[in-house]
Write a structure and sequence with these properties.
single chain; 142 residues; alpha+beta; Arc Repressor Mutant, subunit A; 2 domains; 3-stranded mixed sheet; 6 helices; 42% helix; 22% strand; globular
Length: 142
């Protein structure tokens, strides 16, 4: 099975985009970050491999990966800003800490019956979903 970084890079190349060293560094940083990550966190992590990595390259790569459906924005209402998270599945459910921005997958919480009811009521055929629940994690509550 391919690593997250390999999967992201392969998708980028298959979509016809160039395989530059700075992009590979951004992808490596994303794969290493896990959970939610900000562009600045990616920049800081990426600079440990490529000292001259620029914030513009980070943003452009994140925008590109977002347009390809490989990452998505996670909005933080209280701060009026966003971070990013890997978009691994067509059915994503996660809970995000409003303080530390750690994201945890909501495994074992099947919303299929609710989604089917919503789809039926609204006349939609639901193909996927993304649910983000916000709160304060146990560590930040201490």
């Amino acid at each position: 099975m391919a690593s997250t970084g390999e999967r992201l890079l392969r998708a980028l190349i298959e979509a016809g985009y160039s395989n530059t060293y700075p992009r590979r560094v951004v992808i490596q940083a994303i794969a290493s970050a896990g959970g939610c990550f900000s562009p600045f966190e990616i920049l800081e992590l990426g600079r440990s491999w490529h000292a001259h990595l620029g914030l513009t390259t980070v943003y452009r790569t994140l925008d590109l990966l977002t347009s390809l459906g490989l990452v998505h924005k996670v909005h933080h209402e209280e701060e009026g800003c966003h971070s990013y998270a890997l978009a691994d599945k067509a059915h994503e459910q996660r809970i995000v800490c409003e303080r530390c921005h750690r994201a945890v997958a909501l495994e074992g919480h099947d919303l299929q019956a609710l989604l089917e009811a919503i789809g039926q009521e609204m006349g939609y055929h639901i193909k996927g979903h993304r649910l983000e629940v916000f709160g304060v994690c146990p560590n930040c509550q201490k």
